[in-house]
Design a protein that fits this description.
The structure holds two protein chains of two kinds.
Chain A lengths: L2 H21 L2 H4 L1 E2 L1 H4 L1 E8 L1 H22 L6 E5 L3 E5 L6 H11 L3 E7 L2 E6 L1 H26 L5 E5 L7 E7 L4 H9 L4 E5 L17 H7 L8 E9 L5 E9 L4 E2 L3 E8 L5 E7 L1 H13 L5 E5 L2 E4 L10 E4 L5 H13 L6 E9 L1 H30 L1 H23 L3 E2 L1 H30 L4 H33 L3 H34 L9
Parallel strand pairs in A: 1-19
Antiparallel strand pairs in A: 2-8, 2-18, 3-4, 4-6, 5-6, 7-8, 9-12, 9-15, 10-11, 13-14, 14-17, 15-16
Chain B lengths: L16 H21 L3 E2 L1 H4 L1 E8 L5 H10 L5 E6 L6 E6 L3 H6 L4 H12 L2 H8 L3 E2 L5 H9 L11 H17 L8 H5 L5 H10 E2 L3 E9 L1 H30 L2 H25 L2 E2 L1 H31 L5 H33 L5 H33 L7
Parallel strand pairs in B: 1-8, 5-6
Antiparallel strand pairs in B: 2-4, 2-7, 3-4
The chains are: A alpha+beta, B alpha/beta.
Chain lengths: ~525, ~400
Amino acid sequence: MNLELRWRILMILGSTALCVWAIYPPAEKIHLGLDLKGGIHMVMRVKTDDAVKAEVDLTQERIRSALGEKGLAPAKIAAEGLDAIALEGLDTARIGEIRDLLTQQFGHYVLSSPASGRLLLQLRPNEESSIRDAAVRQALETIRTRVDKFGVAEPTIQRQGSGAAADRVLIQLPGVENPERVKDLIGSPAFLEWKLVKVPPGVLADQFRPMASPEAVAQMFGGKAPDDVEILPQDISSADGRQVQAFWPVTKSSPITGNDLKNSRRSQNRFGEAAVEFTLSADAGRRFQELTRKYQGQLLAIVLDRKIISAPRINAVIAEQGIIEGSFSLESAEDLSLKLRSGALPAGMEILEERTVGPSLGADSVRQGVVASLVGSIIIVLFMLVYYHGSGVNATVALVLNLLILLAAMAYFHSTLTLPGIAGFALTVGMAVDANVLVFERIREELRHGRTVRAAIHAGFDRAFPTIIDSHFTVIIAGFFLYAYGTGAVKGFAVTLNVGIVANLFTALVVSRAIFDSELALNPKKETLSI
Amino acid sequence: MLQVFHNANFDLMGRVKWPFLIVSVVVMVLAVGTMLTRGFNYGIDFAGGTAVRVKFRERPRVEEMRAALERSGLGDISIQNLGDPQDHEVLIRVELTQSVAAAAGSEGGEISRKVVESLQSPEWHQAQKAGKIDLNMITENDLKEWLSGRLPAGADAASAADAGAIAAAVVRYRTEHAGLIRAASEINSIPGVKPESARVLEEQSILGPFTVRSVDFIGPTAGKELLRNTLFAVFGSVGGILIYVWWRFKRWMWGLTAVVALVHDVVIAAGAIALTRKEFSVDIVAALLTILGYSINDTIVVFDRIRENLRIYRDVEFPTLVNASINQTLSRTILTSFTVFIAVTALFLYGGDKLNPMSFCLMVGVVFGTYSSVFVAAALLVIVYQRFGSKYVKI
């Protein structure tokens, strides 16, 4: 046996050992996809429009006060479309002054004047896309914090998509079974506000009861609520157990919001019911103290995501610490305090895709996939042994090694094995022997032409080589596009297919050849080949 | 020596190629016609909507289920049996429509919850009101919490650790038995659950009629994007392969005939999916792309041999040479496809209902891929030669 062949065999044995090392122990090293392990897969869209709208709303307020200070307040200021603000009824005599002030203070808007006495501020496109981008990044951070605090092992939380679809967030939570709770935990903005209840004139705070419809509330103010008042709903259960809504008039402005929170945790009220305890930052604590002193005896609504949780009467001056009461269960109090700790989402979330796989289905899929792959492999191996006799062993070794390399590559690159991925495995088994078949048939052909065993083997490998490369390359072309454009589990299929094909080149051209060459080296005068 | 063909010498490129080619055209036309008239049975990947997979303890009564679901105003519903009849497993699909979205509060989870609730029996709803749990639906965490206050003191100390261990044991047992505990007597036999705690479970829980195995919700935008991506992937692959074959064989006509054969295979495989009404999901896209990449292999084996022979036998007529090349490679063309066919057939038979459409599609593609390498790709090369002379095909 020559030195070169020895090195080749050593290299093959070495890489085999490396593969075994890479996949041992398989339970830890081979990552199963959610479709095999069970869990929740979600694709959510961050409604970045919300963030743009929030910016435009805020700017409207700032323009109003900036112009108001100088006595230049316009008759009307309103959002135009999503990303522009229109000012109407301006003092035409001082329009130059107004323009100067606006360009100076609101440079991230483009100022134009479509008509006399009317100005339009358009949010700059790069500014807008950075607002959207920031919203997605902040949402990602918030979701990550919430999931971490919820305690899910090995979650995947990634930004997905590009260009116009860059507002996607992929969330995969293995082993989690109840999507409802998780969805609420991840998807609700959890924007907390404290607002004073604006009791209609002539009604005492203690006697005020919320109304069954927003119109009824408006009626109490004589048909239309004042400009600084908005009407928000509260979900309550009626006497007969149905879910109904009650409506409250509250101030539009929120003196304290969730951003002022320092901490929050689940707690209980004096009746032992679940509640959420919060701690405000020092600055907000002072404001809260002032507020509660000033409005003692009035109702203070606690608003979460535009819905009123409860509206207790201010009985005492409260500073930094307080509790939120509502009809909480232990679980919902826990979840709310978790969400408040993690901060609010900058925008609403929309579910684009949600898949929940129970663990029993995953286990069944694994079993069926493994059985199908084994049955296929065994029949193929038997066929190769019957058809090619001794050389069938050769193909079998190559096949086994092929699968080993495929598994090792998946373990090394942390690819996940999905159900279609298992199909990719089975397919790899079928294709793995293809290259062997091409080589063996060629060797047979050369033997028929009267060549010696040695010459036939050499010619067989050399002549089959370009065909094997060509046929493998076309599969990789398709596999590449499948990987590039495929989603989720199909990507897993593309991974196993591509890696399997590359591994196949190695086993069919290097390993199988080394086995033939060793046979020749051990028996240099070999006159017949079992093929 | 076993050999598929001993010195095969069929005249395949003579007049006989025409009937085969006509068969190909007819089958293709039929496939396209089926796709156009019957259309695909799009899965929720493409169509959007909600799919709830449910496994029953006893034979599911589909008509009753349908009536119950329709009463809850879920709109367009389809119920499909999965796997063997004795699996008692069904897939309930709720189409994504405006009215459904409005009725169920626009979110997928809402719809699936509604589906599950309307499938449950009155007894189940009563048991829920009485505070009993359903051992076939409860999650491990909830079971643990529920148990921690109810375990009898003494033999089973009512500690959190015990509750956790019992909940884990029950859920593990359930997972190993396809998600269902079928009879109350089974609870006693679950390893790790002592008789005392088994009694608590038996008395204060019920065994619901089914378990939910998976829930999928796909919103309206996802399907459109998927269709776009699918088209990108298909055209990208076809283009890539065309360019590669062209480059390798130095003649665009070779690339073109190979790609025609390829399109032939993919169209027929897709037509077979439309004809059998198997669900068209992303898995089918994966299968079609695999066929794109794989079915050309046989064509390449034949083409490589034609190219090789062209260099050796310079004065042999082109059709004769193509015919000889086909015959020389016939064994390996069939063998390579055969091994892959075994693999995908095993998947088809044993891979479970989820892999069934995909493996069926691959089976069709592999068979027609072999056929087309001879009767489409090679035959077209010969026809081009006969019509337009050697300038398009000679290397």
